[in-house]
Amino acid sequence: MLWLTGNPEADALLSSEPLALLIGMVLDQQIPMERAFKAPYDLQQRLGGILDAAAIAAMAPDDLAEIFGAKPALHRFPRSMAGRVQEVSAAVTDTYGGDTSAIWTTAADGEQLLANVKALPGFGDQKARIFVALLGKQIGVRPPGWDTAAGTYGEADSYRSVADIDSPEALSKVRQFKQQMKAEARAKLPNPR
Questions:
Q1: Other C-beta atoms within 10 Å of 11: how many?
Q2: CA distance 94 to 110
Q3: How far apart, in whole angstroms, are the C-alpha atoms of residue 83 and residue 125?
Q4: How far apart are the first and last CA of the chain?
Q5: What is the dihedral of CA 92, 122, 163, 98, to 10 degrees?
Q6: Quick check: 92 and 22 in contact, CB under 8 A?
Q7: pLDDT digit string (tens) for 157-169?
Q8: What's the pLDDT score for residue 191?
Q9: How far is it, in rounded angstroms, from Cα 49 to Cα 28?
Q10: Nearest to 109 by CA among 139, 136, 137
Q11: pLDDT for 54-84, tens place per residue?
């Protein structure tokens, strides 16, 4: 089972419901990772216990934004992220007939998997590679070349992203890596003197 939120019910949902995992990845920006990946569980509760891509895609945008914004808000930017989740749900519905797992089960190889993920709204190159790594390392989705398609995020025994988190210790190592990367980036900035 995935260990991404520290909440057993939320982690169980992420482990068993592909749409929940995809929504968590969509929301994993500008908020703590645990909060982003717990949000699909909270969304499911607010939607009456069901996560359905077609139903989310068909909702009135203001209604979904209101659900996202109800306290506690599901994201720091509830309106914009509700829109992003709705766009992704529409893509899953239109392209994969509402079957989120078809994003990866229809991929013949890692490059096709990466292309499928990059075609989703809100998935740039880095986010797509992290999601491919998460699928490969923790879900067992490993078409030929998945690790190459994931780039550095697919490397074994690394602690670069959510794809590598399977325990509190791993979470700590990923956070240390990210802090180190930020410090190195700041050190490369020109001195404003």
A1: 19
A2: 22
A3: 20
A4: 51
A5: -10
A6: yes
A7: 899 999 999 999 9
A8: 72
A9: 22
A10: 136
A11: 999 999 999 999 999 999 999 999 999 999 9
> Domain boundaries in the chain?
8-155
DSSP E strands: which ranges in 15-161?
Answer: none
CATH 3.30.70.20 for the 8-155 domain, yes or no: no
- List for the chain the helix, strand, coil content (%; round to 5): 65, 0, 35
**Contact in structure between 133 and 158 (CB atoms under 8 Å):** no
Contact 112, 146 (CB under 8 A): no
**Residue 6 amino acid letter:** G
Tokens in use for 179? 């802090």
CB 129 within 8 A of CB 149: yes
Average pLDDT over residues 24-42: 96
193 vs 183: CA distance, rounded Å: 19
